[in-house]
Amino acid sequence: MAEYPDRSQYPAHLPDGSCDIDLSSGKYLKLWQGPNHPGITGNMSVELTVCGDEVVEGRTHVGYLHRGFEKLMERRTFIQCFPIVCRICVPEPDFNEYCYAAAVEELAGVEVPEKANWIRTLILEMGRVNSYLMYLGGQAGAFGQGVIGQWTTYARDLMLDRFEELTGARIYHMFILPGGVRDDLPEGFDQRMEETLREIESTLADVHDTMFRNAVFKKRAMGLGRVDPAWVDEYGVTGPVARAAGVAKDVRSDQPYLVYRELDLEPVIAHESDAYARADVRRRDLLMSVDLIRQVLARMPRKGPVMATLPNVLHWKIPRGETYVRGECSRGEYGYYLVTDGSGYPRRVNVRGPSYTHAMALLEKLIVNVNISDVAGLLVSLHTYPPEIER
Amino acid sequence: MMQSLYDRLKDRFNLGEFTGRRADLAFVTVSREQLRPLLLHLRDLEGFTHLVLLTAVDWIEDDTFQLTYLLNDRARARDIGVRLMLPRDDTQMDSIHDLWPTAATYQRELREMFGIDFPDSPRVNEDFILEGWVDIPPYRREFDTLRFARETYPERPGRETHDPATYMKQQLYPDGEDNG
Known about the structure:
Chain A has 13 helices and eight strands. By secondary structure, chain A is α+β, with helices and mostly antiparallel strands. In chain A, helix 6 runs antiparallel to helix 11 (about 275-300). By secondary structure, chain B is of the alpha+beta class.
């Protein structure tokens, strides 16, 4: 394997920390990966400066699908924001619904029925399974293994069937509302969910054999994008990226919300902190989610209301205040900072998605010295969804 | 838990209003001069090592921006939101990218969306989300999204807009036989 030059010395760094890159020297080339590129995660792009086939500098560019979610919410009543919030994260929309609903409930003083909290936990874990399945297909695809994505898409589709029968929708559910959830579990849901979980476990066993034991995947993913544990706080790293670096950071156990205190869970960690370790942490975390879904269905109360009594939501005014509500989504800490001013509209909503820190500062740090062919694999290993950056 | 922290730090950092939201979350107001010493103290001595977010709230009626620095202490499972009130006619603020490198991204966004400048922050003047934006910063309260959309994007030719209630009435009762 060829030795890379010491990038701390070459190219030279300017006082502001940027690289002294003279494109006219012929040593460097600008190369855009995205926004339309098979090796990009969502609608974003990375402006690469390469020397040969090696990246010397990377700049993340977002804004390709900016819809001004946060601003739009300031012009809508609290209940009207629900069709907006779920669209901030397509593959795992339910965290937006939960965090926003929980923030509204807290400021309005609404008490959620116990059964609704169990169903919310169930929904969030189902969403996590979907998100991880989508990730595994993308991660394998970034290293040339197309078949894994077909298997995980099949498994994800089965979970989307469960979402459809529970919520009436496959992608954007709008099932979690202030005060609880829209409905109870349908008849026979437990049995159909168990069949789905078994199928997912079977698919995951195949994925483990075919992807994680594959020599090419190991060769390319091991050692790629190593995150120093010291960067976890400096760069706001959360979720599987932090856990793969040995930091057992998981909101579900650090600051338990909903019914996580009543469930058995142990944060999944690794220490190698490279793309392979991150993939493995997510695979094992997915299996834990499967187990958590079983725990929820086995322990949840079967009787009782699923929705609190609310005031007329069309004329709902919430007293002045501010709060922050967080949850652990498949990519890390997801949170909503909500400010109210006593009117019928949110004064300010700020969405804290894990991609905001992972795909900007952290990615730009990790991408230096990476071979062009591994950029896609590195990007996917951070599991980023651009709408969280440009809310 | 948060009240005792406030009591200890109140005089030392000349802290302003305290708002206890939950047992594990509180907000406190600080002056511009005390912001940096307070953040350093919270990070290095109180365990608030994780900068969760940095954002702004526009209190246009008070002619003020509120900057909120939210910090998390994972070991003790608690959060503190540090509020700083900035006059709308002096929107220049000290950067904290040397305390948390990731703050540079938040500061770049705040400059673009709210027009709050952080002069020493790396690449703060580079476009972040809005390339080529020439209007007022769009997340300020006086920016009218509806007016902007109407002025910027022409209506599609042939498109008709109806008042939903009137339209449905016409569809359901074309002869005006609404007895309900």
